[in-house]
Amino acid sequence: MTMPPHGDGKVTLQRIAHDVMLARGFLPEFSPAAVAQAERITHAAVATDPAVRDLRALLWASIDNDDSRDLDQLSVAEPMADGLVKILVAIADVDALVTTSSAIDDHARTNTTSVYTAAKIFPMLPEKLSTDLTSLAEREERLAVVVEILVAADGSVKGSDLYRALVLNRAKLAYNSVAAWLDGTAPAPAKLAAVPGLEEQLRIQDRTAQALRRVRHRNGALRLETTEVHAIFDGGMLADLVPDEKNRAKELIEDFMIAANGVTARYLDAKGMPSLRRVLRVPKH
To answer: What global pTM score does this model have?
Structure first.
């Protein structure tokens, strides 16, 4: 990769990130075959399998960073009898467009994640897919893999399931504004208030997430506090590093994703399939 000459702080950081990616065994760029494959994909996947459930009527919503376009999860809650709550977590069904062992799949298998650095994001999937054709974007019908979790009032999981479904994101919400509303320090964000029933929907999700968290900590889960920062650039130069702190909305999504990961691992184990793991290597100084 040919990088511009030194002098631009952001470009310098991009160069460093690129080199570190290579040194750590990641692929910072998509192969020509992966690029060509992405160019051939022109439409979002459609539901052709009769087993795909139609869940578009539910009050799905996403909560992510303000500027995120690669929306990979939605959530919704359904109160049940005896204090039970059914939590549904929809995960973008990338497999509907990216075939196994194709060039894009090989790239994703190597990196296993999008890599976020101060100056650049190295996406696991081509942005044409991650920010558009597979993104669970607002007001777009999309195929998803749904993880269903039946949670009791005490936070214990009483049942689970996993299946494919067609979903519709009713509102693209942001962590900070949702957290401020949940904490009672700000009114409901406009997009939240505009969807009838969505405010109560998120209240139920918040209560259920907190119950799941309490059970997890009673069972010995560790709480690791780390400081993350968001880089602010001015004319290509790094101007500031702003703390990106945890809040109630981020914890809600975190709790649901941890629960969904547990359901998925148990599902794979029941099917006699190995669960997927990524070993994180600690850099040596």
So the answer is: 0.86
